[in-house]
Design a protein that fits this description.
By secondary structure, the protein is an alpha+beta fold. It has 2 domains: 245 residues, no CATH class; 88 residues. The protein is built from 11 helices and 6 strands. Strands 1, 2, 3, 4, 5 and 6 form a 6-stranded mixed sheet that branches. Helix 7 packs antiparallel against helix 9. It is elongated and about 85 Å long. The termini are far apart.
């Protein structure tokens, strides 16, 4: 071990990757990150510092993905038999039509001509509507009973895999990449703020020069000019110096430009090291009747219990989305032009 190796081991003794962490998937993610931000390669020991942070995100997201329910067969024939598919789609004929809107689904089948089916992530917007309806308790039917009805729309299929295991691995990789992108967004925000602060500093210094010149020469000799707001020249200079000092402190908190690469890597490692702050999955358990009305588990004779995940992605503009793993057959794929033509009839 050379002198510099011992020096860096002293700086980052806890960040060195273990053999278990530095696996093929982690190495692939490191390469992916350096493609997204090539300057990372210029940071000292970037690989040794990235691997433990990536491994932490991988482990966290991997545990979430392992808990996801198994893939459901998304087909009209399975609509009545599978309570999940029955809950996600309003009618059996809707399944093929809605899923076939996905350009990514068509592209996947085009690139896998021998595949008879694919496994995919079905993302949906979940809507909860509260109202009143009729409910039977024993032999009595009560009206105006408070009810909650679930519905799902905006069905999206963006990620497909050759098997369920392949799909789950892709989910882990994509979510970890999304977390890393959040780190890059933080860096971009810092750089944008630095630019604004530097412009502000230039303006403040120009104002100081102008005020200093106003206080020079005969004006200081004959007396200080009172400003419209009642603050004298000396008072304005004091306020200005305070603003300049605050500006310098804000710039100092961002670090030197020469340290920007090290700062970039540190930010990404910090974000990857705290994955729960940037991605989370909540398992929602409900019991639904045939009309998607939420009922008590004790009334399960009139419905079915399902558990589906809700994804929380703080960086995403859509906030929370319900999703499910599904299996979809090529035979059920509707040609894209036909789907678009059918949808266009409902556009006003």
């Amino acid at each position: 071990m050379g002198l510099f190796d011992r020096f860096f081991d002293h700086l980052w003794p806890r960040n060195r990757a273990t053999s278990g962490q530095d696996n093929a998937q982690t190495r692939a993610l490191v390469e992916r990150l350096t493609v997204l931000s090539p300057s990372l390669k210029l940071a000292r020991a970037y690989r040794e510092r990235l691997v433990p942070a990536l491994a932490k995100s991988q482990a966290y997201i991997g545990e979430l993905v392992e808990r996801l329910p198994p893939a459901r067969e998304a087909s009209a024939a399975n609509w009545l038999a599978d309570p999940y598919i029955h809950a996600f789609f309003a009618a059996p004929d809707e399944i093929s039509h809605v899923l076939s809107r996905s350009v990514e689904l068509h592209a996947w089948f085009d690139s896998h001509p021998l595949a008879r089916e694919t496994w995919a992530v079905l993302g949906m917007a979940m809507n909860e509507r509260r109202g009143f309806g009729a409910a039977q308790h024993g032999d009595l039917v009560h009206t105006d009973v408070a009810q909650t009805t679930l519905s799902f729309d905006d069905h999206q299929v963006r990620v497909c895999g050759e098997s369920e295991a392949d799909l789950r691995a892709q989910i882990v990789q994509r979510v970890v990449e999304q977390i890393a992108l959040e780190g890059l967004a933080h860096i971009a925000a810092d750089e944008s703020r630095r630019g604004a602060l530097e412009e502000e500093r230039a303006l403040l210094r120009t104002r100081r020069q102008l005020l200093t010149r106003q206080g020079a020469g005969t004006q200081r000799m004959v007396g200080e000019r009172a400003l419209a707001g009642g603050v004298g020249l000396a008072g304005e200079l004091v306020q200005l110096e305070a603003e300049i000092a605050a500006n310098e402190r804000a710039l100092a908190s961002l670090g030197l430009k020469t340290d920007a690469i090290e700062h970039e890597l540190a930010v990404i490692c910090d974000v990857l090291g705290h994955p729960a702050q940037h991605a989370n999955v909540e398992m929602r358990a409900v019991t639904l009747n045939a009309m998607n009305v939420v009922i008590e588990p004790a009334q399960a004779d009139g419905g079915a219990s399902i558990v589906f995940p809700l994804a929380h992605i703080p960086a995403s503009p859509v906030g929370v989305r319900a999703f499910s793993l599904v299996r979809f057959a090529r035979a059920d794929l509707v040609p894209l032009p036909k789907v678009l033509d059918a949808d266009s009839r409902f556009v006003i």
